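Before surveying the methods themselves, let us examine one representative protein, written as a sequence plus integers encoding its fold.
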Amino acid sequence: MDDLTHAFQVLGLKPGASPEEVKQAYRDLVRVWHPDRFGHDERLRLIAQDKLKEINGACKVLDAHFFAAGATPETAASDQTRPSAQTPATNDAPPARHSRMALWATLGAMMVVLMAGFVWLLKRTALPAQKSSAMRYALSFDRDGSRVDIATTGSLTRVYTVECWALTRRPKGTETILSSRGPKDFTFDIKFREGKRFHGDIGDGSRWLAKMANASFKYNPGIWHHIAYVVTPTNYLICVNGEPWGSGSLYPEGDPMLYDSSHQLCLGADGIDPDGFGGCIAEVRIWNTARTAGDIKSNMNLALTGSEPGLQGYWRFGEGSGSTAADSSGHGFSGKLIGGISWTTNTAPMIH
């Protein structure tokens, strides 16, 4: 793989992406991998710091590439003011212009060589975790009926934990991340709502036990957030990015249900409300235990083996293509991709 292709891959882009796409991808990744987000763990903070260096290195390679081609991400917006390929050249420019152009071309080529050496050095010194992190994937939903149907068997009631990484592309609106409500309702869902909270519903399969299980949190479009719901027969806890942001009691107390034969898990839709999802989902986990806030925080950036005690379902989306998402927990709860879903390398800040 050449350095230019690798640089596009680091930013989660296909070769040939435009300068504007490079700028946007760079901004998104800096938000995701900023070391300050990992202040709770010094080891993860250092890894994020190295990842940010890799992102900066890739952006410099692409800057040099666009500069040599005559359009950098900073100057591409002014391309419309330049003569088109059909505009005949004039002889009014001073002779010195050609020598200046040759000088800039030479400098651009030198920058490409220097940046290639810089990227090579980063690749030599990077930890194995960073090398493999570029190959992680997430699912991107288009809101137009796209969903993932998960083939759960048996049932999970009374005590459970659901956690995942998700981002929405919309600043407002209601969008379903995960649900088991369809087709008979009264079970469970998690949703982005109106740009200012995460919303959940909790039921026992025949009635609601908590209809407004909310966590007030002003989320931003295009930013990955880790969301976890811990549910017991008496109460619930909501953690966002590893921190407790909401809690409450179930009324009446009962046996909350995550899924059974009449309520299958689904990503991106709930089968009841028209709250389609337009964003990305990664690293979905369900447990048959009540995870503590400390457990959630210490593992939210770490990939699991799939054999952890209490892990009931685990979708890493490591396939990168196809119409099926495997369950890495070994329980066989595979997911079927339906509608406009694509695989993307712009995924959550996970460390292998």
Q: What stands out?
A: The chain has two domains: 3-80+93-133, 138-344. The CA atoms of residues 157 and 257 lie 4 Å apart. The helical segments are 3-10, 19-33, 42-68, 96-125, 128-133, 293-299. Residues 3-80+93-133 form a domain with the Helix Hairpins fold (CATH 1.10.287).
